[in-house]
Amino acid sequence: MIDHHVHGVVRSVLPRPAFELLINEGGWVAPPGTSHFDSSLGAAIRRWCAPVLGLDPLCPPDTYLGRRAELGDEANRLLLRAAAGAGLVGAYVDTGHRSGEVCTPEELGALAGVPAWEVVRVESVFEEAAAAAAAEGRVAELPDRWAALLRRRALTAVGLKSVVAYRHGFDLDPTPPAPGEVVVAVERWLQDAVAGAPGDRPPRLRVADPVLLRHILWEAAAVGREQRLPLQLHAGFGDADLDLHRVDPVVFTPWLRAWRSLDLPVVFLHCWPYHRQAAYLAAIWPSVYFDLGASLNYVGARAPAVLAEALEVAPWSKLLYSSDAFGLAELVHLGAVAFVRGLDAVLSRWVESGELTAVDADRVRSLAGAGNARRLYAGAPGLRASGAGPAGTPGPAAPVP
Ligand SMILES: [Zn+2]
């Protein structure tokens, strides 16, 4: 499989509270007297990651974390190599989220023994350009400077990603704002950020202004189209920054219509509980792709049911694989296991009941696991610049663990 949406992992021993923060999307400690281990994901870690570290399946959390601490850095390597053993052949790494706390794409690839490339988060590039422009007192130049910076970053990237879902939701006016509106919005945004910052620290630049988000999406679409980079959009399941009902992929439909002539592939990530809506869009709109991302890790033993729902109306050419792992190597491994096992459970049932041939089932597996990602990202400058074949290392699907 190609994990087309993943983040770096933390390279330090994690005490139990820090580990638990990374197995719940909310990012808050569990209420007093409870544990994030008491969940589908907690059980999946004990079931599928404990044996990788030489422990019995379903051992208690403290036994698991004790062994993990003993192993140190080696635990990350073992878990990532186990993901490769489960079929992982390449990773497309989003570097825009808490990048200072996790390893780089190169380090992740080296630990897993697979090639890795960067997916550039467009809002982060905008904020980086804004910080530089503000420090130099050249705020009016921001629209041009960020467009140039994004084009430069795109040259080594495999895809672009937007977190507009977290910053506002998909219910944004789908027209591009006029240049004058953008300049006014930039000045207002930076003034508010400076006014809200404590005197001794630089302002925190987090772009959530609707005019600027529209501008960022249109510029990202232009760069994606020019440089043949698909645009990933977070949808559905995510942390407390988002209003779930506003990140249903169907809310983005007016944008798909506005971008119809651009021929820009749009990939909705995660999607749960709107994976059926994403599957519908993928069936109707030629430009739309989707994955189940971290949802498969969080639904644990229910992964086959969610995959079956995703495959109800979606063309086989539109579903992709990702783990959306952040921080923990466990999540990279579990994502691969959940996808391989879940898909196998669904497809073998359909083959047994005579709905598909075994050849059909293999075709679904190889398309969703890697074939669709290879085709979708084949033109990305990062892959072309590195001399890789389409979407990295080719390889047959690995056996089901
Ligand atoms: Zn992510």
UniProtKB/TrEMBL annotation:
It holds the Pfam family Amidohydro_2. This is Amidohydrolase family protein. It comes from Acidiferrimicrobium australe. PANTHER family: AMIDOHYDROLASE 2 FAMILY PROTEIN, NODULIN 6. It comes from the Bacteria. Gene3D superfamilies: Metal-dependent hydrolases. InterPro entries: Amidohydro-rel, Metal_Hydrolase. The lineage of its organism: Bacteria, Bacillati, Actinomycetota, Acidimicrobiia, Acidimicrobiales. Residues 126-377 form the Amidohydrolase-related domain. Signal peptide: none annotated.
